């Protein structure tokens, strides 16, 4: 197995949703570090245009319903040429979990995702400020109910506990002072939520599109003491203090490590996280610098890091579909993809709580595993799909290996990833290949039955334990 190809495939599983062999060959021409730089500085995404989507999806013109909005984001993930942009937005969606169940307005959630794309690679300070102004977050954590005469601590608490520092690095008094600083950070058109009549009523035009407004008359301008600092702080001042904390650098670096490198953090991982923290401070809190430190580390490139994460459901579905080469044109079937992520435990735009999803091995249970295997095996065992056709073409181009089940299995594993499997998994795949009989070639090309045989083997590989690992 070519180590360069294997390393690039590993990078693209983590910094994207996997890659086809054609894509890997393009990245290899640029080289590893240049590819990392390109991923961290995305240009035009080239995703399926909205005007094309809306010709087929009336529901995706307004995007207020959950399933349509989730399907819309999946189109972006499936067709983008900037995979890390979407992967990082998915990370922020899990970290800053905001859900449809309370908002009842999916467009506001998609606006938040777009904000993640715009600010997600830059300064963590700027991202937290924009998050604090985001209408979906304001409603999700009740900051529209946070007034100078009666504070609501929900956003202040989660900003410190779940979004930036973690438990043990602040006091209850810090939470209260934080909440006071964010009084007046509210919505400019949400009066309908109160008992008063309003020109901004939800009716008769549909669910409202909220926007942020700062109300100085509702802001507590008094002196506050926060994390040992004293001043007449507002929300931006609070964020300025938060991002200077070592606890914040460690929190962010650890979460990024667990999402992009390994579910578990061992002593070697701690050393990588220390380097990421250093990059955080040296760069002025830039997320791209923290990720560059991770992706270019020896640990990330090592065998130890490879296959040490369980793919999340969205990663699994999007990666499988991109490999199969489907959904590159509008189709109503895309709604079934969103449903698949829900069945597997990760409904886009619908995190279960403010904590987001519990990841790692908790993605896998008896029900979700069946959904994962059935979906991947069905998608990748179809010889009519363009991506599967390309794998079959590459596998069958070396005809002398087709009669040898071991070489056939190794070739399929290579062109599907490369994917490294355990010896017992490989033996099982070889037995399956043997049970199908030798692949036959006619006039220099695989016949219809040969394509079906190879496709079935590809589908069997997609059902293995190793395929569920990133």
User: What is the count of DSSP helices, taking H or I runs of 4+ residues?
Assistant: 25
Strands of the widest sheet, in order across it, are 1-2
Q: What gap, in angstroms, lies between the N and C termini?
A: 18 Å
Report the portion of residues in β strands. under 5%
List the SSEs and their pairings.
Layout: H1 3-14, H2 21-30, H3 32-40, H4 50-56, H5 59-62, H6 66-79, H7 83-95, H8 100-103, H9 106-119, H10 124-133, H11 135-140, H12 154-161, H13 172-181, E1 185-187, E2 212-214, E3 224-226, E4 229-231, H14 235-242, H15 246-260, H16 267-282, H17 287-295, H18 298-301, H19 313-324, H20 334-343, H21 366-380, H22 386-397, H23 405-416, H24 423-436, E5 441-442, E6 445-446, H25 448-462
Antiparallel strand pairs: 1-2, 3-4, 5-6
Describe the structure.
This protein has 470 residues and is mainly α. The chain has a domain at 381-468. The protein contains 25 helices and six strands. The strands form three sheets. A two-stranded antiparallel ribbon has the order 1-2. Strands 3-4 form a two-stranded antiparallel sheet. A two-stranded antiparallel sheet has the order 5-6. Helix 7 crosses helix 9 and helix 15 (246-260) packs across helix 16. The two termini are 18 Å apart. The model is unreliable at 192-205 (pLDDT under 50).
């Amino acid at each position: 197995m070519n180590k360069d190809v294997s390393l690039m495939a590993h990078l693209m599983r983590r910094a994207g949703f996997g890659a086809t062999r054609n894509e890997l060959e393009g990245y290899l021409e640029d080289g590893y570090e240049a590819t990392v730089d390109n991923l961290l500085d995305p240009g035009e995404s080239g995703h399926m245009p909205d005007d094309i989507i809306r010709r087929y999806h009336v529901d995706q013109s307004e995007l207020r319903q959950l399933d349509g909005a989730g399907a819309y984001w999946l189109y972006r993930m499936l067709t983008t040429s900037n995979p890390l942009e979407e992967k990082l937005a998915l990370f922020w969606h899990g970290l800053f979990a905001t859900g449809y169940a309370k908002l009842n307005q999916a467009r506001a959630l998609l606006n938040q995702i777009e904000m993640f794309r715009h600010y997600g690679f830059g300064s963590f300070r700027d991202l937290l400020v924009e998050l604090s102004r985001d209408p979906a977050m304001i409603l999700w954590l009740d900051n529209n109910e946070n007034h100078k005469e009666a504070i609501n601590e929900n956003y202040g608490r989660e900003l410190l506990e779940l979004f930036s520092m973690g438990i043990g690095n602040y006091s209850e008094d810090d939470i209260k002072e934080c909440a006071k600083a964010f009084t007046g950070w509210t919505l400019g058109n949400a009066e309908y939520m109160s008992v008063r009549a309003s020109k901004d009523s939800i009716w008769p035009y549909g669910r409202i599109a909220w926007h942020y407004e700062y109300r100085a008359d509702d802001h507590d301008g008094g002196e506050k003491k926060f994390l040992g600092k004293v001043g007449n702080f507002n929300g931006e001042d609070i964020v300025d203090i938060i991002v200077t904390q070592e606890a914040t650098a460690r929190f962010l670096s650890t979460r990024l490590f667990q999402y992009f490198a390994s579910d578990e953090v061992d002593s070697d991982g701690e050393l990588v996280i220390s380097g990421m923290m250093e990059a955080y401070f040296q760069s002025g809190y830039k997320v791209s610098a923290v990720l560059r430190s991770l992706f270019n580390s020896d640990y990330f490139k090592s065998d130890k890091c490879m296959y040490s994460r369980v793919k999340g459901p969205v990663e699994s579905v999007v990666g499988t579909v991109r490999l199969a080469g489907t959904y590159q044109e509008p189709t109503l079937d895309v709604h079934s993809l969103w449903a698949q992520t829900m069945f597997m435990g990760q409904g886009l735009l619908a995190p279960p709580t403010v904590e987001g999803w519990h990841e790692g091995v908790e993605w896998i249970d008896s029900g979700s595993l069946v959904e994962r295997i059935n979906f991947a095996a069905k998608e990748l065992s179809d010889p009519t799909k363009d991506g599967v056709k390309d794998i079959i073409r590459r596998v069958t181009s070396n005809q002398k290996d087709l009669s040898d089940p071991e070489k056939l299995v190794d070739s399929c594993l290579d062109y599907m990833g490369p994917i490294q499997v355990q010896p017992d998994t490989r033996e099982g795949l070889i037995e399956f290949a043997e049970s199908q009989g030798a692949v036959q070639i006619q006039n220099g090309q695989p016949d219809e039955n040969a394509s079906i045989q190879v496709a079935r083997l590809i589908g069997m590989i997609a059902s293995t334990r190793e395929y569920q690992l990133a």
